[in-house]
Structures are given as C-alpha cells and as structure tokens.
From TrEMBL:
Activity regulation field: Inhibited by UTP.
UniProt-recorded name of the protein: Uridylate kinase
Ranges where the Aspartate/glutamate/uridylate kinase domain occurs: 8-216
Ligand binding (UMP): G54, D74, T135, G136, N137, P138, F139, F140, T141, T142
Biological processes annotated in GO: 'de novo' CTP biosynthetic process; UDP biosynthetic process
Catalysed reaction equations from the record: UMP + ATP = UDP + ADP
One GO molecular-function entry: ATP binding
Location in or out of the cell: Cytoplasm
PANTHER family: URIDYLATE KINASE, URIDYLATE KINASE PUMPKIN, CHLOROPLASTIC
Record carries keyword Isomerase: no
A cellular component annotation (GO) from this entry: cytosol
InterPro entries named in the record: AceGlu_kinase-like_sf (IPR036393), Asp/Glu/Uridylate_kinase (IPR001048), Uridylate_kinase (IPR011817), Uridylate_kinase_bac (IPR015963)
Length: 239
C-alpha cells in the first residue's frame, strides 16, 4: 500500500457521465466501464465513496423554468440520482465488488438510509458506499452533496470526474486558446468564476481544507495512476 497516496477518497461523477453517445440516459456499457475503474481502486485497498449526479435524467432548475414547482422538481432530481446509484450498484455487484447505496431521502425498501457511522463502517469493510439523493434538500447540487459527504467521511481527496483534462479558463471544447490550470486555489476558482463546481460546494471544500482533483474519468486507468502518485488533472487546494 505504500505507493498509494490516499486511503479514502470521494469520487463525484455527473449523471451525464453515464449517458450514451446517442443520448440514452444510462448506457450499461459505460456504467460497467466506470464500475471497473472503481473496482480497480478497491482492489488496491483504497476506500471509495461515490456520489453520482442526476443530470442525465432530470435537473430541478431546468424543470422549474418550465413551470414546475422548484422544490418538487428538485425532489425529482434527487430521485434521479437514486436511479443512477442503483445502476452503478448493479454494475459493481456484477464485478463482484461489495457495495451499498445509502440515501439522504428515506427509500428503505430500495436502499439504506445515510448514516455517517454506518457509511464509514462500509468503507472500512472494503465496500463502496454510494451516496444518493444528494443532500436530501432542494436548492442544492450533487457537487455540494459530494463535498459534504467527503468531509463527513474524512476523505483525504475528492475527485471530480469530467470529460476534459481538468480546469480551464474557458470550455476547451468551445474556446481554442483556453488555458489549462494544473494547480489553483479555491479562492481563484471562485473569484475567476471558473466552471468547476457551484460556489456552495467550493466554499465547503475550501473552509474544510479538502483538496480536490478535477480530471478526465474517461481516460482508462487515470484515477489509479493518480492514486499511485502521478500528477493528473487539476489540483485545487485551500492555499
Ligand atoms: N438535487 C437537490 N439537492 C441536492 C442534490 C441534487 O435538489 O442536494 C437535485 C437538483 O434538482 C439537481 C438534481 O438533483 O438538479 C440532479 O443533481 P445535479 O444537477 O447535481 O446532477 P449532475 O449535474 O451532477 O448530473
């Protein structure tokens, strides 16, 4: 284990990471591929907490702009994250990886309630803990939920998975001369309004001194290489 830089991490995947190229909300092959990445980490002895968004199915703010009550639409968004969590649980179990879905909303016949001590116990036993239903409150995002859970479970690092290499001054898919930042502070990300996470999530990480890596999850084996000490993606720190 000496070559591994972290014992416990929190990995945040957006719901869109599960989508097929054709636009299907959940692509089983992609979920299976991501599950294998997570299993490889567990096999190396790393404890993994997972938060998966719900944007591939529903975003509360978007539905609210179409006329739905915001609280109701956010509750629908939180339920969407449970659907994704169940898909990931299934994929991990298929690979033989023990896993538990824990939700911030009570859905006891489908998954466990989120209880911090129990979550930590699952991690210690080598089970992946998938934290679903965000924070359980409307008006928040799963990025904030990921920051919160990472701090609660004492994760040494939060990894925010993206489709690009890391943090840029602008969207590199749209702006040709966007500048890549290998390292930055939370205050820089907030002040320059870099499109990393919402401010609530950034402030939570900053104030609790939780370092974060923003990196491309679709580069096979990249998370494992990061765990072995390679400098991959962008590192965001307090100072
Ligand atoms: N959501 C919420 N409270 C939370 C987390 C999420 O109300 O604590 C709702 C919100 O409507 C959000 C949706 O769930 O739009 C899906 O989460 P998010 O947009 O963060 O997913 P991602 O963009 O990561 O796929």
């Amino acid at each position: 284990m000496s070559d591994i830089i972290c014992q416990r991490i929190l990995l945040k995947l957006s719901g869109e990471a599960l989508m097929s190229e054709a636009g299907g909300s959940i692509d089983p092959e992609i979920v299976q591929r991501l599950a294998q990445e997570v299993k490889d980490l567990c096999d190396a002895g790393i404890q993994v907490g997972l938060v998966i968004g719900g944007g591939n199915i529903l975003r509360g703010a978007e539905k609210a702009s179409e006329g739905l009550n915001r609280v109701t639409s956010d509750q629908m968004g939180m339920l969407a994250t449970v659907i994704n969590a169940l898909a990931m649980q299934d994929a991990l179990e298929y690979l033989g990886q023990p896993v538990r879905v824990m939700t911030a909303l009570k859905i006891n016949q489908v998954c466990e309630d989120y209880i911090r001590r129990r979550a930590v116990r699952h991690l210690e036993k080598g089970r992946v803990a998938i934290f679903a239903a965000g924070t359980g409150n409307p008006f928040f995002t799963t990025d904030t939920a990921a920051s919160l859970r990472a701090i609660e479970i004492d994760a040494e690092l939060m990894i925010k998975a993206t489709k690009v290499k890391g943090v840029y001054s602008a969207d590199p898919n749209k702006v040709a001369d966007a500048v890549f930042y290998p390292r930055l502070t939370y205050d820089e990300a907030i002040d320059q309004r870099l499109n990393v996470m919402d401010t609530t999530a950034l402030v939570l990480c900053r104030d609790n001194n939780l370092p974060m890596r923003v990196m491309n999850i679709f580069e096979p084996g990249a998370v494992m290489r990061l765990m072995r000490g390679e400098d991959i993606g962008s590192l965001i720190v307090r100072k």
